[in-house]
Each structure stands twice: as C-alpha cells, then as structure tokens.
User: Fold these one by one.
Assistant:
Number 1:
Amino acid sequence: MAWFSRWGWECPARRRAGVAGALGLACILLAGYGSVASAQQQATSAEAAASRMEQARLADTDTLLALTSEGAVLYGQDSVKLSGYQYCSQAVALAEAGEFRQSVRAASKALHLANATNDPNLMAMANRDLAIVYSYSGQLEKAEEFAREALRHQARDPKLVVGPVQKVIGDVRSRRGDYSGAVLSYDEALANSSQRYAPLVQASLVNALIESGDPARAREVLGTMAPPKDAPLTAQLDRTRARLLLAENKPAEARDAYRALTARQVGADTEYYRLWAWDGVARSELALGQKQAAAEAVGRALGDVDKVRARFRSEEFKMGLFSDLQTVFERGVAIYSDAGDARQAFEVSEHSRSRALLDAVRGRAKINEQAATTVDLATLQRTLAADERVVQFHSLPDRLVVWVVSPDGIAEKTVAVKRDELNELVETFRNSIVRGRRTAITNADKLGAALLGPLGLAPGQRLIVVPHGPLHYLPFQALRLDGRYIIETHPVAVAPSMSIAVQLAQRTPRVNASLTAFGNPRIEDKYDLPGAETEVKQLARLFPRNAVYMGAAATKTQFRDVAARSPLMHVAAHAEADAVDPLYSRILLANEGGKQNFLEAHEILGLPMDSTALVTLSACESGLGRIAQGDEVLGFTRSFLSAGSSSLIASLWPVSDDATAVLMSTLYGELSKGRDIQKAMQAGQLAVLKDPKMSHPFFWAPFNLIGNWRLTVGS
C-alpha cells in the first residue's frame, strides 16, 4: 500500500510509568486535609495542593522527553527488536486501526531509537506521526506541539515530513474554527507534498475554503483535482461538492446532489455514506425552509446510525472532514425541539448515548449486547417511581435543551447558553472547587439557577441526572438553589443514558452484604496511601463477610480472580483516565513479579462481573475520561457497567483522605442498615458537608453515584 494512503497515525501516550506519578502525586498531595484547623486553612491547603498538582502534570505529561523515556522501557521489554522505521510503520498501522494507545507505544520506541542513534530523519518522522495521531484523537495542543517539533529536524525527503506536518497544523486550526489560518497551512502543505499525497491536502483545503467563506476558490481547487481511484475518497469528495453547493447558496442543487448520493454504493461503507447523504438532504431542506422535509430526512439519517457507528474511518480525517455522528443527532434534537415535539427530541437525544461504547471500542473488546438497546419514553416512564425525576441534558452549539421526565409526563426547557459558554462555566466552577475558592459558592448559585431553577423540581424528589458534553464534569450535587446545595434537598444519581440506567436498575436490585476491598496497593513509596488502608479496615468492620487485600496482596491477578464473586467491590487506590484512548485508563494495583501490573479499562470489559452490584473507586479522578464529542464519558464507567456491575461510585477530582473516610464509612454504614444506595450516598455527602472544617464542596462533592440508584444490600 502506498505510504500516502496509510499516513498519519501515531499515538500520544498518557500511560507511562512517569505519568502514573502525575495523578498519583496529586492524590498524595491532597491526602489528609481534614485535620486542618479551619475552613479557610482547608481552602488554602486545597488551592496549594491543586497548584502543585497542576505543576506535576505540566512537568510529566506526554512530552517529548516522557515519550522517549517510555520508549526506552518498552523497547527493552521487546523480545524481538525492530528498527526505528519499522516501529514507525507499526505505529501507522495500529493508528489506522483505531488503536491509539498501542500506536503511541510503537512511536515511543521510534523516538527512543532516534535519540539513541542521533538520527534526525527518524526523529522528524516519529514526531510527524505523533502529531497526526494527536490531531485525530482531538488533542490539538499536543498535535501542534509535535508538528512543530517535527519541523525542527532535518528530513531526508522533506515532502514526507513538511507536507504532512503542515497539514496537521491546518487540521488543528480547522478544528479550532480558525479556517483562514487553516487555509494558509494547507497551502504550505500543498507546496511541500508529493504527487501522491497532494490530493489529501487539496481535499482538506477545499473544506477549509468552504468554511472560511471562499467558495469561489474552493470551486477552483476542486476543478484541479483528478478523480481519486479509492472509492471512499471519491465518496468523500462528492460529499464535499454537495457541501460546496450549499455554501454557494444553491440549496436546491445541493439537495439533489445529496439525494443522488443516498443511492451510491461504496462497498462495506455504503450505509455510512448514505447516512451523511441524508443528513445533507436535511441541511438542504432547512436552507429551503422545508422543516417537515428536513425532519423526514434526518429521520432517514438516524435510521442508519446503529449500523455504522462502531468502526473508525481514517479517510475523513485525512481529508479534513472530521465528521462526527453526534452532529446528526444534534440536528435531530434541534429540529424536533423547534417543532415542539419533546418526546421525539428526547428519544433522539437518548439514542445518541446508548451506543457510545461501541464507538469507543471499535470491535476491540466484547461488550454486553444490552449496551446497544435503547429504551423509549413510555418504557422509561413505567419504570419511574412517583418521587423520581429524570433530568436529561443535551448541549447544542447554540443552546442547552433539558427534559424533566416523570411517571406521567415530560417537560422540555431551553437554556440560552451556547456550548462554548457552557464549557467555560463548567470549567470555572470546577476550578473554583478544586482550588478551594470561596467563589465556588457564588458559581454554584449561578449555575444552579441557570440549569435547575427553571425545572420546577420539588424538594425530596430523587434526581437521576443524564449529563451531556461538558456537564459530565459537573458535580450536580454541588449546585445550589434558594441558598441550599442540591444534595441537601434531593438525592442525586448520574446515568450515562437512561436506557442504561433502566437496565442497571433491573439487573441487581438487592445483593448480599459481602464486601471485597483492595487498599493501598504496593507500587513505590511515592504512591503509598495510608489513609486508604485505614478506610478499607473501617469498611471491613461493617461487613463481617469480607475479603480484604492490602499492599502487596492488592494485585491485578487477585482482582481478576475475585471479580466474579464480589457483590460489593471497593478499591482504594490511584487511578488514571486516558484522554486519548479511554480503554487504556487504568487502576494502579500492586506490582507483581517486580513489575508494574496495572488494571486497564479494556481488561475490565472482559471480566465476568455480573454478580457485582457495586464498584467503588475511592481514587483520584476515577470518574473522568474522554468525552466523545457531546456524548458520554468513556473510561472506567462504561467498562465496569458493561462488564456486569450495576452501580459505580467514582470521583471527579483528587480527593481528601479524611473527607473520603467520613463519606465512605457513612455511605457503607447506611447500606449495611438496608438503606438504598442513593439515600446512602446523600447521607455520606451530608455527613462531610456538616463538618465545618470540610464544608467546602472540594471535600464532600467529588464522588458521583453512577448507574443503579435503587440498589440495596441484604443481610
């Protein structure tokens, strides 16, 4: 296969030995705050620790030095040693298959060898490939960083480096919305591209010209392009031509072009391109003012979604299209919401979430087939108790749509906040919490009033929140209404989707009071968590039937051995979320055989955990992961739920040892008395909140209850 047709993949890796220290150090730094004398001192300590955490991360992320060091370790472990260029080829192949983390590991070996042999050409090519994979995975700052690093090294054939690297810079600018800047980069890439590679650059250039408002030049560039021999690339170009007609204010011609594409055969990808063709028809009909026809077209597009979602396609990234299926769902939600059809809008929103895991794994892991089943509104309503309310959000580019579902109705509200603005609001709120700032209270009042104030929620109602986009990082329990935190008036649970939540609520409604706990896994001194060990011992006293694994005994091998027979699983350890490939998020368990042996999310997917009702990750930032462009968080959450567990408790930021000990002991104490897990979680959070030394949300609000909110524990 020609190089240009395979180009472009290499991977960033957050999973290095050194990286373990970034989050791990953050957790250690935040241990033991509960002993500080005053709330102000607590806040100051939290802020200082957060600052140190940030510095640790900046010093130890996917830097050139870190990746080179990781490559040296990985290369040393290889029984068969390849050349640096062979590792580059390996990295490309893995990346094009969607194996981002594995790809970066191969690229890291190439970096190591380039450094060891002082080979500037290999260094240029390894950095080129890393830039490309970061771009593909949406890590734009890193993509640009490695692209510019590649340009610093002398390549034997500049066209193999300069052209692709400048294209990456153009792709980064496109995804940031800087289309004029992208055009400049693509022009430079085109001037430094081989004859084979040039068509990919031209295709990206055309798309950027369309978005930048220069359809005339886009038409000119299109006219110079020879028809590609590759069927998918041909289909992508024809789709671009239809987009150009829309940009030229020719919606009727665009509609006809898109309709013609709905009948196009593109081999195994026929349904995929037909989906985008129907979406184009919908866009054209909207431009023509034909809202009903647009609704029908978007319905046709959504009808093909489930058939095409689980496969990664690099062609669209090569051509600068960066298509995202979520945009089809967004269009559907917007169309039905504008038409006043709350039920249809809600169900489209729900459908957008129910297959997200399939998007993430791309055939790399076996998952529970129920993960793909969507529950309709009527079924959901029959499931809800009288005091339960589903609060589901969908973030659109120009607004936030919210539905409140009760057993006998659905109400839709619109919040006039753009997605970019919402991102900033959530980030500001989170920063004020993690830094221990007093402004967290003010921010909680503002966000609570905006997001929940219009919903008419009655005190005492149980809330099952289905977040969307940036709201996955928002601790809803810490929002405030009428001067009180939501957790003071409402038990709160979170669900990746209501379809998932309904299934989970039915999976294990009641389980035996048998606890399996892992505490303070032994790795290195800097990872020690003495508070975690104390925490596990306290919980074990609440459950006479228990199995506890501490220190060197808290291994991955042991975890896998007991996973199938542990109704309640508690893990007090460090955890890391992988921003590039969520299936490589990992829990840091004890060394085995003198080597690190961490439990990764893709391994969790393969565990038989149908008998596990609750997994508690009493770990730093265990609830975080990559958000799949407006979809749910992918990482530990989906791994454990898909493996069979029905409930998960995980954190949104680094946690305090003392606060966590109070929360967990209260929560499990209430569970042991027969209280349901949503009420038990509320009791645990309130127990911390009522302590004046830990009343700031930093201490009591980090943990989310995800999944089955009704779980109870028997004798």
Number 2:
Amino acid sequence: MTEESQDLQSIQSLKGVGPKSASFLNNLGIFTIPDAVMHLPFRYEDRSFITPIGEANYQAPVLIEGEIMKSSVVFRGRRMLFTEIYDGTGKLTMRMFNFAMAQHKALEEGKMIRCYGNITPGPNGKQMIHPQYQVFEKDVEIEIEANLTPIYPTTSGLQQNKLKKIIEDSLRFCEEHNLLKENLNTGNYSEFGNLLETLKFLHKPPVNTDIEELIEGKHPAQKSLIKEELIAHMLCAGILKNELEGRTGPSMGNESEEENRFLDTLPFDLTNAQKRSWEEIRNDLTDVKPMRRLLQGDVGSGKTLIAALSALHSHSNNWQTAFLCPTEILAEQHFNSFQAWFNELGLKTELLTGSTKAKDRKLIVKELALGEIDILIGTHAIFQSGVEFKRLGLTIIDEQHRFGVHQRFSMLDKGGKQNSSPHQLIMTATPIPRTLAMTVYGSLETSVIDELPPGRNPVQTSSRPDSLRDRVIKRVEEVCLTGKRAYWVCTLIEDSDELEAQSAEELFKEISNSLPKLKVGLVHGRLKKEDKDFVIKKFREGDIQLLVCTTVIEVGVDIPEATLMIIENPERLGLSQLHQLRGRVGRKANTDSHCLLLYKEPLSVMAEERIKTMELTNDGFKIAEKDLELRGAGDIYGIRQSGLMDLKIANPIRDSELLVEAQTEALELGKNEKEFAKILVKRWISNRVDYSES
C-alpha cells in the first residue's frame, strides 16, 4: 500500500471523524476505514416495529413510542430521573439512576420519545430502567429500522450511534473504492463469496434473518469469517514464533547464594506449584534461546514472588531486569515489595512512571544506560524512546492482557546487544483457557501456579437484589465497626469517564449519609494521582474503614485487612473482571472474607449465569472458560485492554469444530502461500507491528 492510499484509507479521512474521535476509535483497534468495516456487532436487536405500551409484555425487549408527559429529578436515597410517557394505549415510566443534567433538560414535556429496552413492573405500573432512547419533535417523522439493529463493542467517549454512522460511511467508502472485495478463503460456508458482501450482511442483516442464529454465531455468513479469522491468528502465532528463532538470549547459568538468602528471609515456604514454576523458569533462563514463558496464577497465588526470584537470578548473572505494569498503583506496589526484599542484598531498584518528575526521570535514564540500576519497575513509560538499558537480560510483564504483542516485542531491542533478545516472563491473573492457549497462543510456553498459599480461605460469594440495599448497608456497618475493612465497588460503565466518576461520587454521598459512624473514602479514575494515593494510604492504615471506588482497584490495590467487598451492578461486568475484583479480598491467611454481588432486577439469562458461576467457584480457570463461553474472546495480539485476544467474531470454545480445519489450513498457507498468509494476518490483525526486520 502506498503512502497516498494509506492516507486515503485513514479513519480521519471520513467526514466527521476528527483527531478526538479518531483517538477513541484507535482504542477499539480502528485506525483505517477497512478496520472500521471489520469491527463487527456482538449482538443484534429487532427494532423494526413499535409495540403499543398497553400491549407490551414484561421482560421482553420492545420498542415503544409516546409523548413525554412529565420529567423530574427525585431523591429516594439516591438521585433518580423519572420520565412519564403516554402513547394513547397506556403509560410507562422511564427511570434513570445515572444521568447528566443535560439529559434531563432534553426530556421536555410535549416532545416525543422512542425507547428500546425491557419493560419491568414499577411502583407506578410499567417501567423501563436506563433504556436506549431518542427524543424528537411531534412534527418530525423518525424512520423505523428496516434491518436488525447491530450493537457494537464501543469505548468510553464513543457513543453507539456515532460508531454506527462511522461504520456505515466506511462500508460506503469500501464499495466506492473497490476495497475488501476479494473472495473468502473458507470453503462453502456462505452464499457470499465476496468479503465485503459478507460484511455488509453482518452489519445490517434483513429483518427476516434468524436473530438467534446470529447471536449464537452459527449463521453461514459468520462461519465463513470465523474460519478465516482463526486461520489468521494461527498464522500470526506461527510468524511470531519464527521471528524469535534467529535471536539468542543471555545464558544465566550461574547459581547464586543471594537466592537462598532471599528465600531464607521469607516467613513461609514456597508452595509446590511455586517451586515447580520457578524450576521451569530457571531452566529457561540458563538457555541461550530467549525465554518466552507465560506464568498463570490466580489472584493471590504468589506470582510476584516468582518474578522477584527471576529478577534476582538475572542480577546474579550480571543482567538488568525491566518489570512492566499496566497501572501506576500496581507499579508502586511492586516497587515497594522489591525494595523491602532486595535492599539488604544490595540491589538497586528504581520506579519509572508517567508521574515521575522530569529531573528524576533524567537521572534514572542516565543510570540505566550506565548499568547502575539492577531492576527498573514501571508503566508504559518504559516503552518510551530514550529509555535504554546497558545489559537488559529479562523483561517481566504483569497483567499481560493490558499490553499488546507489539509493545512486548518493542522490549526486544532495548537489550543493548544486536541480535540478542532478553528473556521474557509474562504474568497474568486472568487465566487463559486451555482451548485458547493450545490454538492461538503457540508462541509462549506456559507455567501454572494452581494452588494458593497455605491458610488462604476461599472468598465466600453471595448475591442480593438491589431491593435489599438497606439491609446490605446495615451489614457493612456491622462488619466495619468490628475493625475490619471493606470495598464498595461502583461498576457503572457509561459513555463517559465523567459519568462514571459522577456515579461513584453519588454512591459515596449515599453511603456516607447512611453510615455516619464510619470513615468512608472515595477513589475513581478522574482523581489526581496524589489524591488517589492519599485515600488508598489512609485505607491501608485503617483511618478509612470503607472505600467506595470504581474498578480502578481491579489491579494493584493489595490490602490484606480488607475482608468484605460489595460489587454494585455486577451484571454489567464479565466473569473474569468480577473474579479479578473479588481477588482484592481474601488475601490474609486464616481469615474469612466475603464478596456480595448487589444486582439490579431483572437479570438477563447471561447475567444470571455469571452471578451463579461466581457463587459456585473460586477457580480462576473454570471462570475463564465460562467467561470465554459466554462473551467470546478479548485481546491478545492487539492493543485493546479488555480481554484475552482480539477475536472480532470467532470464539474458540463455541467454534471448536472449525479449529482443526483452520489449524490444517494455516499450516498449509504458512508453508506454500506465504504472501497470501501475510494478507490474511494484515486483514484480521491490522494493528500488529511487523518485527521480522528488527
């Protein structure tokens, strides 16, 4: 592709897509117009007909339309927006708990409104809670959808309607410029041989299309793309593996007394799983072949200790270590742990994050290049140009799903020696299901810590409807007044960070007013770092008994004294994230801990299944398998931070019957049709950087 055609295909070349919108789209892996077309719906809704309010049934999603009779903000423990709607056949109340005042102003009496959502029983009859809606004037006609309505994965700052228009414009662009019109390489799964025609169908299926078949991913048009996508990811795994084969790594064969001294200082013995994992890693480190090992372990299983042993072994062999963390909170936590462990052994550990002052950063960069820093712990700041190591022998990456493959590979060239690559240890508390690991994660060896340290009791998990909220608040007070600490997690996921922060602040006010005897703190993503650090410090020291927070505490806040967690709106989150949050409690030996899921009724079938799974098991691997089964996969090869791999449409568990076919064809293409293999990888994994020239 020429530079000119690249500019033409840039997502910013579309009308209405400026730098700000482009940055939101980039978060979804959308950089070009073809990327937008490849961004597929994750579900569909039938909004092709309006149901009279008087005839609408409870629970089933429906489209209603009526006149706004009244809209008002009321306070019943928390702020709520009530909007009364009438269509001549009946009345319906729209209720919203989290809203901006601009929304309230737009809901003017006398205007028309069209809402889509589930109807539930309310105090004044039929109601919809937080439906999708459109407000318009009485004399304006709004068209009814002629196709099934696609619902897309989106991101903070990018609303569904805006994303839909961008995708529609992108489809039109591809048609006009003859893009994506090549034939599919997937057999006769679909009546569409043409890639673009298949994509157009999946973005706007006709109303008579079997919606259940689409939701289950079993439509022939989907199967044709699923197989091609699986082939592309298997090819990518093979390419990544091949790119490493020409590189050598530092052989770390020296045994060290430091390791034994370090282990002797610990007040506990390693678990058998830790010992096994450390033996596997140590063997890799002695080899001249660069280690590429994934260390999986549930929350609290002791992965950090194995990372520390690896860094110590690297130092004993005169090599430096880089330890990459996705958040500043987590980086600081690891830095404090390593300093406490290694100061007496004479190792120099430093911390580099986005908040590091320019003067301190300059000194760190200088000492790093001179080889005076043994272990550098930091965030994405380590990837920045100018941060160079004298002798980088080992990179450790925590919470691997927060970093894309291209970021991990960028560390290969920071080692200070040509044609040499540092060893890489990649850690995750989000277990990767075996099905997934075997098929698309072929470039990594795997170690598993599958047992918790002695004395760790499983977290007891239960669920309650929001109608029992007052009782839950009372129970939290009782627990905290005994000297224990608790989290109350607000899990609102909205189109803006501002609304999320607003929701957390409202919850904080509600809880503070309800529990005047307790010291309550608040943490969310929009707080300044120093304010966030101060509140967490107070909570750690016990000056704050109850911490109201967003999912910002999912990674990196380790406070063993916290024994209770309330998760608000758990129905909004996936299983793996719920499990990760739950792992913030239950970290103190021989102590009972509890997690309560406070859900809004009615629950969807999927949400009910997720909550039931959380109540039944603490096994991270079982939870990851179930999460993949229910939601599909997230990000492995891309840069998104929301799951395990960037599968746009395939699901390795659901599509297991296609895996063998895909694997066979990937091997064949990789051997005999290398150019076409590159085209497939580029098509499906467009944001991957080619390191073959590195």
Number 3:
Amino acid sequence: MADKKRIGRQTPTASYILPYKKTISKEAVKLYELSGQKLFDWQKNVLNDLMAVNQANEWIHMQFGGSVPRQNGKNEIIATRELYGLCNGEKILHTAHLADTSHKAWERLMYLVEQSELPVKSSLKTKGGEKIVIDGGGYIDFRTRTSSGGRGGSYDTVIVDEAQEYTEEQDSALSYTLTASKNPQIILFGTPPDPDTAGTVFTDFRNKTLAGENEDTGWIEWSVSKVTDNKDIEAWYETNPSLGLLFSERNIRAQTSKDQLLFNIERLGYWVEYNLKSAISEIEWDALCEKKQPQLIGDLYVGIKYNVEFVSANPTGDLHLGHAKGAAVGDSICRIMNAAGYDVTKEYYINDAGNQITNLALSLYARYLQALGQERQLPEDGYYGKDIIQIAESIKNEYGDKFAHVDEKEAIAYSRSIGTEHELQKIKDILKEFRVVHDVWFSETSLYAENKIEPTIQRLKDQGYTYEAEGALWFKSTEFDDDKDRVLIKSDGSYTYLTPDIAYHLNKLDRGYEYLVDLLGADHHGYINRMKAAIQALGYNADQLNIDIMQMVRMVENGEVVKMSKRTGNAVTIKDLIDDIGVDASRYFFVSKAASSPFDFDLGLAKSKSNDNPVYYAQYAHARMCSIERQAQTVGIEVADHYELLTHPKEIELVKHINEFRNEIVESAKQRAPHKIANYIQRLAQLFHSFYNDCYVIDEANRELSSQRLSLVRATQITLKNALNLIGVSAPEKM
C-alpha cells in the first residue's frame, strides 16, 4: 500500500470558538460545490464555526476573524459564505484594501455564481464599483476601503478582506452599516500584519478575542508562536493547512530566501509582538550594526503601481519658486514611496497643445524675423524673455532667412516645434541639477495625435453622463458631488481644458496604474471634485485619484519679501536658488513644512552656518559622525558586535529613534508627507548631539565601551544618510 500523502494541519493552531449545537455551513458548501469545485476539510471546519447558529437561527459569532498564511485558500471560505448570503437574501458588503483585490474577489464570486447557474438579476463590473444581484433580493457590493467607504449603506454582512490593513478610521466608517440588520455578521480575514502596517484593528480584534474579552466573537488561526527557522519543514506543515493540497514543499522552499521575519509572517503566520516602549532586543541591535549602507527597498507594497505627476509647468520659460517647491516635494514623495516598496513612476505632463505654446511659437517667429532685420510685432500675450531671442538667433545662424520665404504656417509650426523642444530641454536640465529626474514625459499633443480624446467623450456618453445644452456638450459632474456640471465641448466645437485632462487621466489608468497622484498648485483647488467626478464616471473608484494641493511659498530675506531675481530682475527661479543657496538647502527648506501649508522661505536662514539652520544642523551632525569614525580608525578602535555596556539613557533614546525610521518611512509614504522625514532628521540630529555631549565616544582607556559606542555612531550615520537621501539632500563627510 502506498504511503498516505502528507498534508498540512487541518485544525487551527489557536482558536476561540463559542459553544454551539448547530451550523448551517453544509448548505453553503453544497452551493459552492455546484460550481464543480471542492473545499478542503480545514475550510469546511472553519465554515462550521463561522456559520454556527442558535435556536433562532442567529449567528453565534456576530464577529468572526481568522488568519492563515498566504495562498492557502482563505478566499474560498469567504466566497462560500458570500454564496450562501446571496441565495438567502442577504445584503453584503465586501471590502478590500486595494481596488484590484476587490475586483478579483468580484471575478472569483461571479465565476462561482455562473458555474452554479444561480439566477443573476444584474451584475456591475465597473472597477471600484462592482456588484452582483440575485433574484430574490440578495446582493453584494465590492468596495475599496476608505475613511468614508460604506457610509450611507445598510448591510447584513460585512466582509473585511486583507484585514491586516484595516484601520480604526475605516472601522469607524463601516461600524454603522450593520445597525439596521436583524442578524448582522462582520467577518475579518487576513494575514498577520507587518510591524509597519498601519492597520491596528485586526491585531486588537485577535488579541481581545483570544483573551475572551470580546462578546459574540470567534477566532481561528494557523501560526507559529515564535520566530522559526525558514527551513523548518515541520513548521511549514503546522501552519499551512493546504500544503500538500494546493502547493508543495518545493513551492515553500523557493520562498525561504526571504527575510526571516517576513517569511515567518507571510508563510508561517507569525504575529509580531512589537512594542515601541520595549527594551532594545538583540535582533534590533544587530540591525543597527550594518557594515554598509542598506538599500531602502521594501516589499511591503510591491505590486501597487502609483503614477505621481508633479511640476508639469508649461514649456514656455524658466521654472519659478512654486515649481521649485513642487519639484522638491514631488521628488521626495516618490523617493519615500519607493523606499516603502511602492512601484512609483514619476511623470511630467507637457502642456504643449494650448494657447501658451501658440504664443510661444508666434513670439519666436517674430524674434526670428526681427533677427533678420524685419519688422514684426510680438503677440499681445507673447514671451519677451532673452531665451526667445537666443533661440531665434540660433535658427538664423543655422538656416539663414529660409523661414522668411516659406509659408507662414510652416514657419510658425517649425517655431512651435523648436521652441517647445528648447524650453523643454531647459526644464529637464535645471530639474536634473535640482536632483529631479522624471521617468515619463507625456505630451498633451499625443492625446490628439493618437485619438485619445474622442473615445473618452464617447465613453462618458455611453455611460449616460453627458447632455447637450446651449450648443455645448456638458458633463454631469454634479452626480458625483461636484458643485456644478462642466462643459466638455464648447458651442464653437473646441474642447475645454478639462476634456484633454480627463483623457489624460484615463490614459494613465489604462497604462496599468492603480493609483494616480497629482501635485498641483493652490489655484487648482476647484479642480479636485470635477476630476474625481470624471474618474468615477469612467468606471473607477474616486480614491484611485489623489490630488494634493501645495500652498504658496514666499521668499523672504531680512524680513522683506523677495519677488525679483537679482540676476535677471524677473521672478525668482530654481536657477537663482541653486546659485544663491545650493540644492541641499533649497530642497530641505521646501520639504521641511507640510506642503498643504503656506510658509515663508527664509533666505538668510538658509545661507547661515549655524544650528538655527536645520539643514546645516543635520549635515554637521553627519560630518561629526564621520569625523568620529576617522578618529577611531587612527587609534585602532573598531565597531563592536555586542552592546551590553550601552545603558546610558541618551544611548537608549537614540537607539529607539533609529528603530523608528522604518515606521516613519511607511507613514510618510502613506500620507505623502516628506516633512515627516525632515522632522525625523532634526530629531535624530538633536539626539545624536545630546548623546555626543554626554557620552565620550573615543576613550583609549576604555576601548570596549568606545567600540560599542562607535557601533551606535555608525548606526546613526547610516540612518541619517538614508533619511537625507529620501528628501534629495546630500550627507557630507566633512564640513
């Protein structure tokens, strides 16, 4: 007789289940199996507990949670429960952390419904607004979680998928959706959260339920109780119920190269007991003792594709103060999001199809004719800068009077092309000098050339969100909380500026980005509602578009507002800032305050070499650390790999702040708030200076203590350099 195939543990490693005599799970299982698929024993066991009822057929567990490592098949449990609810007239809300996850859940359930030949009344597959309605009154909405998601709806059952990302704010929004139900149930399923995960509800729910503190609540999990060797096969079988059923040892073995903690969380179901107030552990100290600067690339958010558009100034002249702020803030946001593990694309939208470009072309053509000695007036709204004169001179030097003898339309078209190319290259060059490099430069003209606008309008028409009035085509944006409807096509047949913008945002979504971020100036505040309305009308979730408004910045020196460049007599440019105070100070000051708040850029302070200057203070701290390391090298003191002598309060305080760095990155990324990193830097520099003043590092009479303190200096130096890099600021080794 052949040996019986080994499979993973079919019963939970930990659970809290209320006593019951009856379960209706068999009805749900039958529905699921109508699709031709089968459930595993462990999945049926979970459903038994989940669907336990009392004599009145009310749920024993009004709240039920569970955790199982990834890819074991928890989604089939959820789908089975949803099938039962649909066929029994329940109103269900399925929420997920990401729109893509929510959409895949809809696809999964829709497949089961179709295979089971259930009587579907209607189905909506619009991404971010999916729905299934069954004859008889049962229906399910699929939604991406937000702080307001679910408000206004009334449900019998709420499914919280990927519950490790479930926040208190979201829980508050959903808590009222079950109030009217006679037999409500909320179900939370996920994996143990990473220490950096923002969601806290899942962990609190688990801990209180296992402790018996929650009423009418159940819990199941498969997990290890402590960090376990990645290659411990027994632990694999103990924590993965579908091992040997859905996947093999070979599949898990391919994952063992992962970070040990991450492997334990995702594959072995380990719950991190993490307390920021706890004593420093050996593992934490080891993490501080890195011998080289680590890359800040995580996998917490791998697969989440973001498009971040910033600066996007018209290519008609120099980038000024507001553009500089947008460049510094936008680039820092992207650096931080990349560090947190997001897949981020930096994009610049080239406004090369509007009146500004037409005026640029006319201005350049006029200057070209003037360079040839001909009289030609610049247009009323023309561009009078020296760069236009210089471009005109270069055309004359290369082509002579060629364009004075061709059709004027052809000459202006060439002027348009060469002028835009020149101005755009100038923008790219100055941004590069400012340490900002975009991944994509998207031309507005391409929307017309590739026929992207008309299909977008047609899509809005097909969805029923347009109408004609006063000879114009209108968008029904008020149906999505805009204050008034918006014109798409004017009575003269031309587009409003909004129309190509809608097509552009649709193009970005069509390119596969799940979330879009626009960084815009203060004058674009009214833009938010109309563009979010358009996104929803096109079938996407409003939360997939994020528009961050950056408030005005004033340049001041000696208490006086600086409006003009000393070099040119025109408005202050990025070039002026770089020449006057440098890239480091410019970028640091722009991100040091929340972008949504107006602030005064103190030019005098940015130039000063004092502790009052925050960038100088931080860079000096880094230079001092490097100096200490050089000094240690001269006397033969090396970095220690043990730390039992580090007990001074200033040492412990500094270590704890270093250990907060990863959390700070994650929070800053989620909120798109680079000022949080700037605040972290200032605190780190402050704590280091305080430590250095109280704790003598290089002491040849006490070399062991010196060696251990040197390890702390090294850890601080690595962290500070990484933090400065996140906002595009250098970390000098000498000052």
